[in-house]
From TrEMBL:
A Gene Ontology molecular function term of the record: zinc ion binding
Protein name: RING-type E3 ubiquitin transferase (cysteine targeting)
Provenance organism: Modicella reniformis
GO terms for biological process, alphabetical: protein import into peroxisome matrix, receptor recycling; protein ubiquitination
Entry membrane topology: Multi-pass membrane protein
């Protein structure tokens, strides 16, 4: 007789309750996962600074070319740079460089609803999420730059009201206004809940979480303290200089 057969009937009997318990787990209340808002905003600023630094290096590399060449292909050059940074950051590692410096990474929030919000293991982004994010951020930015160039150079806004280009320009203006309002509402929601910095992240359910939850955020205030000391010192000198009689000091 098999020595393990004594527990098999009990194991089979509890399979149905275990399956029901697993299905109900997502509906159980769980503590919310709190991610520091300042870390998420700092990551965005770091990404912007890094991109600007890379653009400066790229423009300097084309400084020997004719100025018309850079101006003509500037959107395409920026597109290539954005594609490279996107490929080696979000697509390959699931986080931007600024997010990695802040110990943050993206996760698929659709897999963490209800009681699964604070699980120790985070679901990675799907390939669809990564491609959609890149297509909208990188490709969408390029299309908007090119469209804005065409609209500006051809003067769509100055055409008669019945012109189809004028109607398209009015539609673009209204769409831009609506998007800015939605962006503002999303940012207010982010300040309240701290989940999605942008509308795109909310649509794609891409949430920034800690890559290593055991690591604490370490911020160095040495540079800030130095700046405050120098600022106070210069303010004191500006207050003191008008009180000093320079001509009298020269005579002495």
């Amino acid at each position: 007789m098999n020595s393990t057969s004594f527990w098999e009937p009990d194991w089979k009997r509890i399979q149905a309750p275990l399956s029901a318990l697993r299905r109900q787990l997502a509906s159980f209340p769980s503590p919310p996962l709190r991610i520091m808002k300042v870390s998420q905003l700092d990551a965005d600023l770091l990404d912007d600074e890094l991109l600007e630094t890379m653009k400066e290096q790229l423009w300097s590399a084309f400084s020997l070319f004719k100025p018309s060449f850079k101006e003509k292909f500037k959107p395409e050059l920026a597109l290539a740079l954005n594609l490279i940074m996107y490929k080696f950051s979000i697509y390959d590692m699931g986080a931007t460089y600024g997010s990695q410096l802040q110990n943050l990474t993206y996760r698929n929030e659709r897999k963490h609803s209800g009681g699964l919000q604070s699980t120790a293991t985070d679901a990675p982004l799907t390939r669809t999420q990564k491609i959609a994010y890149g297509a909208i951020t990188v490709g969408g930015q390029y299309i908007l730059e090119r469209l804005n160039h065409v609209v500006t150079t051809q003067g769509w806004g100055e055409l008669p009201e019945g012109n189809i280009k004028k109607k398209a320009w009015n539609l673009l203006q209204k769409t831009g206004s609506i998007f800015r309002i939605v962006t503002l509402i999303n940012f207010l929601a982010f300040l309240y809940a701290g989940k999605y910095r942008s509308v795109l992240e909310r649509i794609l359910s891409m949430r920034l979480v800690y890559a290593n939850r055991n690591s604490n955020r370490q911020a160095s205030f040495e540079f800030l303290n130095r700046q405050m000391v120098w600022h106070a010192f210069t303010e004191f000198l500006m207050f003191l200089m008008p009180l000093i009689n320079i001509s009298k000091l020269k005579r002495n």
